[in-house]
Amino acid sequence: MSAPVTSHPSAQATYQVRFDWGRAGAAALADADVLVWVDQLGEQETPAHPGLETARVEDAERIGDLVLRKQEERGDRVSIAVVAAGEPAEAGALRFTVEDLLAAGAIIDRLADLGIDHCSPEAAVAGAGYGGLRNATRHLISASVTARLARA
To answer: Domains in the chain and their CATH numbers?
Structure first.
């Protein structure tokens, strides 16, 4: 008898809603049915994925409705990978961006509101971060380092 095939832990495959950062994160979560590339300021190149959606904070309701519709059509759960674009930094590293975290969290929060809430720990933290700061989102995005750099 052969051993069962298991995915790498970074794939978060045991969860319906997953979260990661950047192109490497998108690659790690590539087996998801829907990949949501979150780039609030629209500055990063979008990765290729057959179930790709691009989103910002204001798209959370649209993404939630799309996933719910896909689940209804399938008659089963759909896996969702929410990937915050972040910002490239020195030597190929990725820099954390407040605006992408909040936008990803808004989508994860919306999915939870719809009952799509089997979240990886990473997704749960992003969703909770948005939930706790939802009333300050507009200010936090406009005051973030990345937004200020874009205006400079």
So the answer is: 14-151 (3.40.1010)
